[in-house]
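Section 3.1 - Work completed
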Amino acid sequence: MAVLLTNSVATNGINKTVQMLNQNVSSLDAIESGIRLVESDPEAGWVGYGGHPNLLGTVELDAGIMDGLTLNAGAVGALSGYLHPISVARNVMEKLPHVFLAGNGAAKFAEDCNAESGDNLTVRTCKDWNDWLNNNRNLSESNNWPDVSLIRLSMLTANNKTAKGTTIFLAQDNDGNFSAGSSSSGWSFKYPGRLGDSPVIGSGIYADNRYGAAACTGMGELTLRSNTARSVILYLKMNMTLKEACYEALNDLRAIKTDFRGGVTIYALDAKGNRFVLSVRALDKGLPECDTYYWYWDNQYDEPVKMNAVMENW
C-alpha cells in the first residue's frame, strides 16, 4: 500500500507525490519531486526559494534524504546559491562515498552535478531581514556592520516567531519501500553556518523498511541532542507501538536541560500501516510554535486529507 505523510507547509508538493505513488513510482523519486515543488514556492513557509537568510543576509539551505530499503542516505547543509538542495542531497547519496556535505563543499558538489543555481532571497524576505536588523542592532553594530560580533544578535533570534522553514515527506511505495526527505532554510536570521536537524540523518529524518519512517520539524537544537527520528525507529524495533515510540522519543526530549525549548513535531509511519504525529508546544516561550496539523494519504483516499496532530505541552 502506498502512503504519504507530510507536514503542513508541504501543500504545494503533495498532489505531485501522490500522483507518482499512484503510478507505482518509487517513494524516493516521489518525495524528491514533491519537495522540489515546495522548495520552488516562495509562500511555502520559508522553505528553499523565499527562505529567510542568516544574520548576514545569505540564504543557507539544508536537506536530507534516506532510502529505507538500503539505509543509504545523503545530505547537504548550509548550501547557498542553489535552488533544490533535496536533489543535491540525493546526488550525494548516489554519486559519492560520503553522506553529508556542508558549506563550500556542498556548493562545489552542486556545481559538479550541474544543479540549478539561483538566488533564494526574495524582495519580501530581504525586507524581513532588514527590518529585523533595524529593530535589533545597537548603534555600534549598525555603524560597523557587518564587521561586528554576531553573538548578541544570534541570541535575539531565539525569540523569532516566524521560523517555519522546514518541510518533511515520509512515503511508502507500492513495493513497500519507505523513504524520508526534508528540506529547510533553517532558523530565521540564524548565525551563519548553523545546521539544524533537517539534514542530519537520525535527528531530522530516518527510514528503515523493517520498521517504518520518522521525521521532525520545529526546534532542531532539541532533536539534534536526542537523535529523535532514529529513536522512534529504535523504539519500534523494541516492539513498542507507534504511539508509544513517539512518546518515548518525547521523554528523551523532555530530559534535555535548556532555556531554549521551542515547539517540536514528530511524524511517524510504521511498517504495519499506522501513522502518528505528535506536536509538543512551548506556550510560555516566545519561540516558534510547532505544526498543529499534517497531510496524510494512502490508497484508500482519493486525495490527501488534512488531519490534526496530537498536541502536548512540554
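Second construct:
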Amino acid sequence: MAELEHLGGKRAESARMRRAEQLRRWRGSLTEQEPAERRGAGRQPQTRRRSPRVRFEDGAVFLAACSSGDTDEVKKLLARGADINTVNVDGLTALHQACIDENLDMVKFLVENRANINQQDNEGWTPLHAAASCGYLNIAEYFINHGASVGIVNSEGEVPSDLAEEPAMKDLLLEQVKKQGVDLEQSRKEEEQQMLQDARQWLNSGKIEDVRQARSGATALHVAAAKGYSEVLRLLIQAGYELNVQDHDGWTPLHAAAHWGVKEACSILAEALCDMDVRNKLGQTPFDVADEGLVEHLEMLQKKQKMLRSEKETRNKLIESDLNSKLQSGLFKNKEKMLYEEETPKSQEMEEENKESSSSSSEEEEGEDEVSESETEKEAVLLQPF
C-alpha cells in the first residue's frame, strides 16, 4: 500500500510539473514574468501611519478558499455572489485545482453547486484531462458519471485518454469514448477544420473578420502558428493577415511557433518575410523564447530571408525600370498623337478656308457676268427703233 501511495504521489507530482511547464506560455501573465525591480518601478512609497489595507480580488479569495478545502467559507462566498467558474491567470478553475490536489470532497461540492465540469483552461485542459494525467481514477469516474466529455481536445491535440498512463484509467476513458460515440480523430481535427473554413471565407470575401481571444489577445494567426495548422496559416497569409500582429504580451505568430517548436510554421512565416526581430513586452525576440531544438533552424531561416528580401528588391527594381520605360514610351506616343491632333484641325481649317475663298470668287465672277448680260440687254432695248 505504501508503494502504491508513493507511486500515486509521483504521478501527481509529475502531472503538476507537466502542467507547470505547459502553463509557462506566451499567454501567461506578464506581471509574473517581470523582475521585482521592474514591478515596483514608478511606485511611490507609503507614507500613511496606518497599515495599508490589502484587498484581494473576489476571484482570488474564492480560489484560495477552495484550495484550502474550507467548504463553509466557499459557501459564504457563493452566497455573496462569487463566480464558481472564476479562473486564475492560467485559466484554471477551482474545479481544476481540486482535481489536481486530489480533493474528491471539494470536487463533489463544486460539481453539486453547478461548476462547469467541461471548462477548459488556457491550455485547453478540462478537469478530466487533469484527472487522467494524475491517474485519479475515482475522480475521473465521478466526472464521467456527471456528464464530463471524453472527446474534448486540449491545445496539444490531446483528449483525456491520450494523457492516461495507467491501464485502468485508459480502459475507463476508451470505454466511455465508445459509449459516447466520440470520433476521436474528428475531435482532434474539429478546430483546424473550422479555422480552415473561416480562412477560406475571409480569402474569398477579401475581408478578415477575426476576433482576438479576450484574455491573451491572440489572433487566428497566433493559433495556427502555435498549433501547426500549416494550411490555415498559408490561407490567412494569402488573405492579407498582418504577419507581425502582436498579442497583449507583444508576441507575434513567429514567437508562438518558435516557442512551441513548430518548425514548418516558422518556415512559412519567415518565407512570407515576417519580421524575425520583433520584441515582445519583455524585450524578447522569437529567438529568445524558441524551443532549444529550433534555434539553429531559425538562424538558417533568417539567412534565407535576407536572400529572399534581396531577390525581391532586385525584382521590384526591374519591374519599376520596365514600367518607367513603358511609361516613357507611352508618353512619347501620346505627345506625337497630341501634335498630330493639333495639326489636323489646322489643316482642315485651311482647306475649308481655301474652299470658301474659291467658292466666293466663282460667285463674284458669275455675278459680274450676270450684270454685264443685263447691261447688254438694256442697251439693246434702248437702241431698238420705236
